[in-house]
Amino acid sequence: MAELIPLSDVGVAQSTPTATNRPRRPEWLKARAPGGVNYHDVLRLMREKNLHTVCEEARCPNIGECWNHRTATFLLLGDICTRGCRYCAIGKGKPKPIDEQEPERVAESVAHLKLKFAVLTSVNRDDVPDGGAHIFARTIELIRQKVPDCKVEVLIPDFDGNWDALATVLAAEPDVLNHNIETVPRLFRRFRPRAKFEQSIELLARARAARPHLVTKSGMMVGAGETNEEVFEVIDRLREVDVNVLTIGQYLAPDASYWPVHRYVTPDEFAEFRRYALARGFTHVESGPLVRSSYNAHLHVGAAQH
Known about the structure:
By secondary structure, this protein is an alpha/beta fold. It has a single domain, classed as Alpha-Beta Barrel (TIM Barrel). The protein is built from eleven helices and twelve strands. It has helices at residues 37-48, 54-57, 63-68, 102-113, 133-146, 163-171, 185-191, 197-210, 228-240, 267-280, 297-304; strands at 4-6, 30-32, 52-53, 73-76, 80-81, 91-92, 117-122, 151-155, 176-178, 215-222, 245-250, 284-287. The strands form three sheets. An eight-stranded mixed beta sheet has the order 3-4-7-8-9-10-11-12, with helices on both faces. Helix 10 links the parallel strand 11 (245-250) and strand 12. Helix 4 runs parallel beside helix 5 (133-146), helix 5 runs parallel beside helix 6 and helix 6 (163-171) runs parallel beside helix 8. The longest helix is centred in the middle third of the chain and has 14 residues, at 133-146. The protein is globular.
């Protein structure tokens, strides 16, 4: 049995981002240490293909479990983001030029892993006109060619409101279109300084209008200073634009320089979020301390289509 390891609880604050009092990390916030034959095979493949995964870059607590199931969320467009979101561990700064050959390597990796479900996400690339949308589209196209039975989920940025870029991704016909709302309106502009809550809602609405039968999905982190009532309000807003699938997980600060954790949300509260969301009409909800956007992603599309 793999060793259980505690997750980071640095930067925890009970009331304000500058508070120094920190609640103790609860026992339920533990994940299994990564390891095993499949984990090392995926790791080797990513290095050989010069690819990035959000599993590593964002320090996902489920990396061991997912990689041992031979699944990974591919991080397109490099590993440097042009934005400075206060919760995200991915590197920030000036990225390298877009690698136009990256889609081919991702598709080859999907074929090697014999995936039945692939998740594609990316850093923000505000330095290029389409935000890298053509790379998403080309990657989907090549996966379809090499692994015709593989379903594809895309977890896309907001493309800075470039709806032509969104149309480029939708034209490639992903099976799931995911765009994370991340937090509640009151915290949004401080949590995500270069993004807009209403713009993200509009993106999801436009995706539904353009592809009425597409599975749409969004996710948020809790424990960052929001109230439970605000979480319920975001759930309502997402249902207003007919989002099918929802993920809710505990926010964990990558280190002390990031937005602090204000509290640890209890498993009972996560269960209440799930009950409320299902009652509002979501077809599938993952809600729990260790849930991340792509966790059990292969289960979401089937559930949402029934």
